[in-house]
Amino acid sequence: MTGYVFAPPACPSLPVVGQADRFPVRRIFCVGRNYAEHAREMGNDPDREPPFFFSKPGDALVQDGATIPYPPATENLHFEAELVLAIGLGGRDIAPGNALSHIWGYAPGNDLTRRDLQAQAKSMRRPWDMGKAFDNSAVCGAILSAADIGHPARGRITATVNDTLQQDADIADMIWPVADIIAHLSALVTLAPGDLIYTGTPAGVGALVAGDTCTVAIDGLGQVTTHIA
User: Bridge partners of 143?
Assistant: First the structure.
């Protein structure tokens, strides 16, 4: 029997609300500039482009209540509150009208970003990977099953840092709603069970420093809290 030259890494996973079983995570995709006000605060025109995507490794996941180190190579770590989709049914070229049936559940998330590295990459027309896909950069709360809660089309989304409200919007404000995101992404890659999709952040992103506590909350989906060491 063929083995491995060293033990393979454990599968990343997330807790599921009300269940002992966990949700295994395969890949993490993220949507850029999906709220008009955030696109404008980043100096972009939200009316000119279809959705675009970047990715993070599955082992960048951070669960609720974790304390993580301030990441290296940055002096400008940002929080980004986001709605996260958990894919349960894979597919390619998924029609928007069928897209919701591919979602297993939903969770609050925080797309941590080394903003200075991202800005440098943008200015040099280089990939964003080291600004987005670093260790501990994909914060995600426990997943709520769509079978239990349905498919929320609206709900307040907030980010709070040390009890101060920083982001405050509604997921209904997304430029590209959930069904369109899945349709666009599945035209580029074949989605599979276990994929997560971070759906973009509203305006109000800002910096975190050592000692900060950041909480992302979405009405009906709970919250996820991260402590920066």
Answer: 16
H or E element in which residue 118 lies: helix 115-123
Report yes or no: 211 and 130 within 8 Å, Cβ to Cβ: no
pLDDT tens, position by position, 62-107: 999 999 999 999 999 999 999 999 999 999 999 999 999 999 999 9
> Among 82, 71, 70, 74, which Cα is nearest to 38's?
82
Residue 37 burial (CB count, 10 A): 13
114 CB-contact burial (10 Å; exposed 0-12 / middle 13-18 / buried 19+): buried
Is 60 within 8 Å of 137 (Cβ atoms)? Answer: yes
Q: What is the pTM of this model?
A: 0.95
The residue whose two tokens read 């301030």 is 70
Enter the tokens of residue 181.
């995101």
